[in-house]
């Protein structure tokens, strides 16, 4: 399932190339703005930064929640796809480390969308049922590959790693939150490598 390509305004018709480019720019801009400024950011500002008019935004996303739903789906899909790509291009432990660093950005976006995600949850949106398990499965694959390669300790469990990573979500907000979170990820990765069978990792 491709979580990133559902039309925000319904209808399901294939978008023209220019309309798709506009839509993609809106999603990318909204992701960045929500992560840095929160979900209450002006939709007019998002449209302006994406280089389109507010009418174009509303044609693709008739409400703030519709935009947020698509942004969230895209973020989940990106984390899923990153696991595959990183494992293809890096050693298993390096892939795991890089993926966990990307997880910080994912959490930043999710924190920025918190209130609207809560509204979607309370409205019984299928969003959470459809995306549930995607992140844990991606992390499980990464951890198991690193364990099998002897690059991290044998008793590493992906559920424990996800629990540790998820604690970043509840950390106090502040200008150094992202840097502090990245340091914590590096410390977590050092702990996973400690006692690994392979002495060169």
Automatic annotation (TrEMBL):
PROSITE patterns tied to this protein: HTH_TETR_2
Taxonomic superkingdom: Bacteria
Region annotation Disordered: where it falls in the sequence: 1-21
DNA-binding region boundaries: 42-61
GO MF annotation, one: transcription cis-regulatory region binding
Entry annotated with the keyword rRNA-binding: no
Keywords, alphabetical: DNA-binding, Transcription, Transcription regulation
Amino acid composition bias (Gly residues), ranges on this chain: 1-12
Domain HTH tetR-type: 20-79
Name used for this protein in its record: TetR family transcriptional regulator
Species of origin: Alsobacter sp. KACC 23698
